[in-house]
């Protein structure tokens, strides 16, 4: 019985050892195959780096503001007696906009003017009597004061009537009317916006480290995203004298002509400030750049060797220093040499040393002045 059990145990042990040996060989074979496995090359497009001359610019986001812009409001309370404008109308400085009811003030003016005439007559009589030394000096002075007081009261009522006649303070374009005929308005209540639109300001901010390139009189261009027909050239007219402590930016103001009125206050624009002479750069499509928090890089195609010594076309990761953008292109200031082949699409799926298959039948956009396909 014991002999039979011993034989069984030996047989099981031999079986397990044989099974382990087979599995060991299978695992070793799989490891060897995995080590020798090479993933298929990734399909990419490329461009040969070439030198270009670019004007040195600084990009910023700006907002259009009116040189003069107000919301015209009532100075005194009253009923709207007449409205002398239409919404969106162009007006000149001094044009009548709204008249408030002044019946009560006109009645008070008539009474004050009558009182003024009486005071003036009393003063003239007292002046004659004083010259003949019939009237006392005190009575003459009282008559003089009463005449002046009556005149001042008349001027006060006239000023009140004038303040209830609301006029355009400067030339510009009106917005949408916010009052109606017969409406009672309170002091400070909005009547209509008025904006002077030629010229206009564009306000934008630049980092403090870029302030060395900012100067009054420098030229800049603006474009409105999504509206290709709106573009203009202007000049920097003011640079703020303080740095914002929360953002460490400096506010800059530029002035632009706006004869056609296409630039409206509040518009979001992209400003490009010319900050220096043109210099040589490598212009690449924006799709060639991989933007990361630790630095921007591109992939450069070159001949490489695998572990077996076989040559293949692979990519090398190269960090770059970027300049400004222009249409579909971005300027590479440092990191890429003339003549190097740079990957322009498929960057997101690459890693350094990966094999690539170049197919340049369809290329990504690379136009410095592209026209949008769908406006």
Question: Would you mind describing this structure in some detail?
Answer:
The protein has about 375 residues and is α+β, with helices and mostly antiparallel strands. Among the domains are: about 40-55 and about 280-360, Beta Barrel (conserved putative lor/sdh protein from methanococcus maripaludis s2 fold); about 60-65 and about 195-275, Efflux pump adaptor protein, beta barrel domain (Elongation Factor Tu (Ef-tu), domain 3); about 100-165, Helix Hairpins, CATH 1.10.287. Helices cover about 25% and strands about 40% of the residues. The chain has helices at about 1-35, 105-130, 135-165, and strands spanning about 40-50, 50-55, 55-75, 80-85, 90, 95-100, 165, 170-175, 185, 190-205, 220-225, 225-240, 250-255, 270-275, 280-285, 295-305, 310-320, 320-325, 330-335, 340-345, 355-360. A six-stranded antiparallel barrel has the order 3-10-13-12-11-14. It has a five-stranded mixed β-sheet with strand order 17-16-20-1-21, with no helix packed on it. The chain has a four-stranded antiparallel β-sheet with strand order 2-15-19-18, with no helix packed on it. Helix 2 packs antiparallel against helix 3.
In short:
The protein has helices at 2-36, 103-131, 137-163; strands spanning 42-48, 51-54, 57-73, 78-83, 90-91, 96-100, 165-167, 172-174, 184-185, 190-207, 219-224, 227-239, 249-256, 268-274, 279-285, 297-305, 311-319, 321-326, 329-334, 341-345, 356-358.
